[in-house]
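pls ignore typos typing on phone
NDP + seq
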Amino acid sequence: MTGDPIADTVVAVTGASSGIGEATARLLAARGARLVLGARRKDRLDRLAAELVAAGSHAVALSVDVTRRRDVETLVETATNEFGGLDVLVNNAGISKIGPLSDGDVDGWSAMIDVNLRGVLHGIAAAAPVFRRQGHGHFVTTVSTAGLKIVPDMGVYAATKNAVRTVMEALRQESTDGVIRTTSISPGFVRTELDGSIDDPVLRARIRSNMDEFGLPPEAVARAVAFAIEQPPDVEIGEIVLRPTVQG
Ligand code: NDP
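k done
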């Protein structure tokens, strides 16, 4: 199409209904990628897909809860049915039910494990066979600086993100035949709707104020995703860490 290496690539994005996933979808669509968008808020996804299609892009939206293995399989199948394959899976959906361990919020911990870790595993299980069949494919996963600098209140969230980092490194080492590329992207504070999943009102207000005060725009993370994807097939960007310059 344009000589842009991203043009015509087929990219599925989980958590595309807001924040980093939405910004990634917009940027990749503008560069000619064909998109399959998944999240639970189907109304938001439909609006986004309609906007992208009206602007001349190819985009399909479907209701996906990443905690359900079958939903994630359907996301991958939709890419192969609609566009003949899947080049990149952006495993981005995530929630942040943060709080001190002393709260004993087992339900919140379980929810984070289900979305942030199990959801990513569902993506790997669904897309890896397609990648192997095609002879190429790329997993891009949104991790977090919360896993790099451990701070109070974010222990279990950070643990889910570090579990994913571990899985991605294992996947990299199991994929040195050149078929599968893996990229973990760790953003610091980004101005998104992630605070919406925090149940504790005081913590939620603190995170919201950090996001508003110095958070990166989600487009900054989208550019990092595009950078990883646009590399030639023999170049694997394993890790990208990006923070607001003022973040400690
Ligand atoms: P948002 O809350 O704006 O986006 C999160 C996305 O995940 C939404 O599209 C949401 O869609 C989706 N999602 C949540 N639960 C599920 C589920 N069960 N199944 C499918 N989709 C789901 O926040 P961000 O854009 O910030 O979050 C994106 C990723 O970035 C997350 O993994 C987050 O942990 C990570 N991150 C964010 C940082 C930040 O400061 N914002 C910093 C570091 C990492 P819906 O509700 O419609 O399902």
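The helical segments are 19-30, 42-54, 69-83, 106-134, 155-173, 201-214, 218-229. Residues 14-21, 39-41, 64-67, 92-96, 115, 142, 144, 187, 189-190, 192-194, 196, 218 surround NDP (CB under 6 Å). more later
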